[in-house]
Structure formats: C-alpha cells, structure tokens
Amino acid sequence: MKLEQSIIGRLTALVEEIRRLGESEFPYPYSESALKDLRAFLEAVLERIKSQDELADKETVRQACRVALQNMVDYLPIAGFLLRSTNVRNAFEVVHPLFRMAATLLEPGKDAKDANIRLLLSSEWDYSPFIYRLLPALPGYVLIGLPAPESANPLLIPLAGHELGHSVWLKYNLQTELQDACTDAVVQVLQRRSQDYNRVFPYKIQPDTDLRRSIFHLGQWRAASEWTLQQAEESFADFIGLHLFGFSFLYAFAYLLSPGLTGRSESYPSSKARLSGLERAAQRFNVAVPREYADLFDCDLEDVGDLSETSQFLLSVADEARDILEPRLIERAADLVAASSVQLSSEEETNRILERFKLVAPAEHCRGLADIFNAGWLVAEDPGFWKELPVVHERRDEILKELVLKNIEVFEVEWRMRRAI
What we know:
The chain is built from 15 helices and 3 strands. By secondary structure, it is mostly helical.
C-alpha cells in the first residue's frame, strides 16, 4: 500500500461526506457556508497530495501526508458540529440576535451586515460549553457548542458570553498584552515565597538571583507563568459573559456547573477564586449577585492531590498571580465592552419584560437580549410565578422556555422591521 494513496482515499471519503452534509436543509446560512468553506479547504489539501510528483523526495511526501492526516483529525469533529447546528433541538431564534451581539463586540463600529464574523450555535456531546478556536479552514467563524441535553434551553444562552470572551481575548491579542504582566505577578509571588521555592527546587533563590533571566530558574517556574496566563483568559471570559448578560450569566453558570467537580485543572482558576472574581466583577458592573450564590458550590472539595509537590506549589503560585491580575482583567473587560456599544441590561427594562411575562406574553420593543434572559431567570427562580394560573403553572418550565424564545423572536422581527423602514 502506498502511503499517499491511503491518504487520498481517506481524504476523498471525508470530502464526499461533507458534500453530502451540504445537501441538508439549513435554517440559517452560516452552517451551509461553513461546510462549503471546509470542503474547499480539504479539497485543496487533497489536490496537493494528488499533485505530488513521482520523483518527489520521500520525506516531502510523508510530511504532506502527516499534514493531511492532522487536518482530517482536526476537522472531522467540526463537520459533525456543523451538521448538529442544523438540528431542530437548537434554539434557532437566538442565532441572529446573538450574532449581532458578537459582531458588535468583535467588530465595533461596523454594521452587522458588513461584519466578517460568522456565528454558529450547535449542540455538543461535551458537558461544558466551549468554543472552537484557531481553525485555519474557517477564518472568521465563531463556533459555540452547548451540551446536547440543554441545547434547546434558551436560559443557558448567556453562557455563550463566556465563549465570546475567548474570541475577544484572541481578537485583541490579550495574551501578548498580558504576558509580561503575568511574568511580573509570578515573580512577585515567587520572591515573596522564596522559602517554599527553595524547598521544592534544586536551584535556590539567592539574594542576587534574577528569576527572569536565569535559564535554570526559568525552567523550574515557567509552568506557573503559563498557568497564570491560561487562568487569566478564563477569568476574563467570565467577566465578559457577566458584563454582556448580567445576572442571567450567574444563574446559567450555577445551573450548569454547581456544585462543582472534585478535580482541578491547572488552566482554570479554583472555584473559590472564580466565584469571588465574579462577585467583584459584578460589583464593578453593577450586577446583582443572587443571595447566597457561593453556597451553591462546594469549593473546598477541589482536589490537587494527584499533582506532585512541585506542581502543587507552582499551581498555588499561579493562583496568587491570577489574583494580582484580576483587577486589570475586570477593567479590560469593562473597557472592551464599553467600546463595542453592546446593549447592556437594566433593572427597569428587565422588570418591564417581567410584567409582560406575568401575562404569559412576550414584551415588545426590547432593547437587547440580556434583559429578556434576566427576566426569564427571575421567573425560573420564583416557584410561585403563575400560581394563579394553574394550567400554566403546571407546565411552568416548558412554557417559560417557549416564552423566552418567542420574546427573542419578536425582538428579531422588530429589528428587521426597523431595518426595512
């Protein structure tokens, strides 16, 4: 079997499968255009393999085959995501308003119809919402996945704000902007905790040690700097989601993730730090935090016992360094949202919509998505809501979700009518 022929066969099968997917019905255009772009990308990869000359260097051919194989591994899940984005389980009513929010956030000052981004919302067989990033085949696309059992639940859409936060992080290259600040924060913590450092590492901190320049020391603590930057991105994404959607982001966050898991990822802040950060950001953004919110989470159960003593120390350093950066992350999120002119929520508008929900009717002339979701969560958190309407109250959760989606649909229709005038 010739290696390139095997790769050609596999690539051809994938391209053909994507072609068949392209014959599906598409409720909105972005899924269809993404499939066309993905197919064109893979066809170009296929053509490069086919065009290899018989006399080409063997290693050159193998390298081309390795690249092709990696593309297949990377993009087969994307094809599945694009197919699931056409499934009726998704809340299609949300797609266009959420796209406009994303466009306003990521391309401020540009009309949504001229925006370069394309947003897709789909179900995923992964419990936590996430975003696909850095896809060379699909530049400009923002792909947000929600857990399949909840993909039709509009009250979880505010969690997309966190995923949009990752896109903002990439858009404004905040990793580069904050790299030196992360290093400074880590070095500050290490110098303060020099005794702990000297206990776990062979190269000790001396009075004249320059932790930034010594290659021996840098190799010992570099992981802490990397984890700090990763944690900073996750915190920043939280702050963007909170600022965009208000307290509905907090409710959706708790609904999906409380009481929390016992494991701890080095790239995420601890649950305790994450919650305290959200509370501080909420104070800065004038967002009301639900009463006893932190009690919904078991922050003390996070276990790092499977990490080595050295890794546990570095993780604790990263945690402290992220704490140092937190105020800057909150302000950066505030500045970027303010610069985007995204319509934020207000208590008055949320209460106005809530009054219409009492009548089991959508509200007209809504200003933005956040107020609709905030009103929806106020209903969800009030077990006595619609109690005077027994038939409605009996199906309260189902009717609430339908009502929120209907209100978003009214919001979208009114926006289109205004544009047509």
